[in-house]
Amino acid sequence: MMLEPSIDSLLKNINSKYTLVTLSARRARQIQDESPLLLERTNSPKYVGQALEEIYEGKLHYSLDEDALK
Q1: 34 phi-psi bin (left φ>0, alpha ψ -120 to 50, beta other)
Q2: Three state DSSP letters for the chain
Q3: Which of 22, 31, 35, 60 has a CA that sits 20 to 30 A from residue 41's CA?
Q4: What is the pLDDT of residues 39-67, one digit of tens each?
Q5: From the record, what ranges are coiled-coil (predicted)?
Q6: Is 38 left (phi over 0), alpha (psi -120 to 50) or beta?
Q7: Mean pLDDT on 4-18
Q8: Does 1 score more than 70 pLDDT?
Q9: pTM to 2 decimals?
Q10: Given this model, what pLDDT does residue 57 score?
Q11: For residue 35, pLDDT beyond 90
Q12: Alpha-carbon Rg of the chain, whole angstroms?
């Protein structure tokens, strides 16, 4: 069970639960494939937890590709 960062605090940075799940899963795969962390130190030993911490700290963002919707 994950306690920190809370879902409510994460939703302040990412406004959709679905986007949050997708973004954190993609970032976790990048971290697993040895992409460098965006934070100097994380509390979580797991990749998804580390990705969520990056989102919480405002280090990870997303943008909507308008051309992909056409």
Answers
A1: left
A2: CCCCCCHHHHCCCCCCHHHHHHHHHHHHHHHHCCCCCCCCCCCCCCHHHHHHHHHHCCCCCCCCCHHHHC
A3: 22
A4: 999 999 999 999 999 999 999 888 877 66
A5: none
A6: alpha
A7: 91
A8: no
A9: 0.84
A10: 95
A11: yes
A12: 12
Which tokens in the block code for residue 41?
């130190």
Residue 1 within a domain: no
Distance CA 30, CA 42 (A): 16
Task: Round to the nearest angstrom and report the end-to-end CA distance of the chain.
Answer: 39
CA-closest candidate to residue 39, choices 47, 20, 67: 47
Percentage of residues in the chain having pLDDT higher than 70:
89
